[in-house]
Amino acid sequence: MGTCTKFVVLLLALGFSLGARFNDIEDPQEEELTKPVLETSKFGSLWPLPQEVQISEVVFKIVSSRFRITDAKESSAGPSCSLLQNAYRRYYEYMFGGGGKRQAGGRGRRAMAGPSELTELQVWITSADSDCDAYPAVTSDESYELTVDLPFAVLKAPKVWGALHGLETFSQLVYEDEYGAKNINATTINDFPRFAHRGILLDSSRHFLPIKVILANLETMAWNKFNVFHWHIVDDQSFPYLSQTFPQLSQQGAYHPYTHVYTPADVKMVIEYARLRGIRVVPEFDTPGHTQSWGKGQKDLLTPCYTGAVPSGTFGPVNPILNTTYDFMSQFFKEISMVFPDTYIHLGGDEVDFTCWKSNPDVQKFMTQQGFGQDYTKLESFYIQRLLNIVTTTQKGYVIWQEVFDNGVKLKPDTVVHVWKSEGSDTEVAKVTAAGYTTILSTPWYLNYISYAQDWQKYYKVEPLDFEGTEKQKKLVIGGEACLWGEYVDATNLTPRLWPRASAVGERLWSDKSVTDINDAYNRLSAHRCRMVERGIPAEPLFSSFCPREYKGI
Q: Are 210 and 29 in contact (CB under 8 A)?
């Protein structure tokens, strides 16, 4: 790659100081990890790695004052497509920063471009309907083709979603030489995601996450080509979602009714910010368990627990025997279906503790009337079934945690089953897909579990389709999610704990199955991490190193 190769060698040689030993104290987990080797990647700092890449040794200069990102004449999306216009400005800033604007009024504007200078990237949306004003969906076409050559570079994509990914890839191809000049090599890329669902779960209940933090991580998700924000918005600990139908839920259930809530305007902002970056927002409202905060603002929603024949004053899961419960759920999920435009809602359904139900005499009587005996999974299924019927009337699909499937609840054919339990996840995926259900995987990607050493490698080495099943079954696995639960995470540590560890998951879900070289990944990811740092995200280091432009702090 000529100058590009020299630059990467320089960056690696300066940036990574491995030292004579890793540490005085050996961590047993390190023995299972590959020790990094310094070597130049022929793919520079591309992350995630595109499906097909050819980078030549021909180098073009890029001068900020003369470079433009424009709509191709043939494109179905023109100047009126604000999604793309915003993206053009955003990526220009990423490539040139403030310096480009300062140079724009100087001599560079009047100078003629040289014979080896690239002055334009043309974006061509090839489909008649660009999806410019639409919301991304699991079926969205995210493919793109990128050709970097003279007289101008061309980014072709059927829809705007692929163009967004292509703009990120183009920005990753731009590098500085030893004199600080911007360069790009002649390149041909054909790219598309391996999996359609590539998600990040953030938990805003156990600790409230300010909108600024959520938006910053949506931005970073786009750099890593994630396309689903799974918003675990409420749980036992707090109810920060401000419902317009039931405002008392957050008034009583949030940590604070004014400072620790997401207003309708906040939610709308998150959804639109995500849309402009090709990211779906899938909210999770988990019931019948994980609902202690719900009960603070909604009388009689939760089951009263008993000690012997006397109420204990505590409450358990949602009360499944009252008609008022289903009246509430009907109204609540009608609102949710209108607030969140995605075609799916995550309904949870995991970790239901039956102790309180077993203690309640009214529940016991109901169990007898229904012929459930002492099998409380049947009572859980009774509740879930009625909830699913309610959500179906809103014309939404639903995602559920694996326990709902395990308990034999009757599910719609388009149900998405979310596998998360660590015991026998391969067997679980095989069972779910054998039953014909679409599946997403999170078991190997619980990023809230932290450890010493380069744990990104274990996330990277996962093969999502490594289970016994037919090709038809494997096609039902549409992707996965990296989960960052919030027991020990808030705005102070969320971003560095998430990145670049989640980046490893991003490449596994985007790139071809054959992309497994840990050394190559280490070198590309190290440079990608420095790029995230340069863009203002405090992504933690992979190992002893430095970035040419370090994080400047808050």
A: no
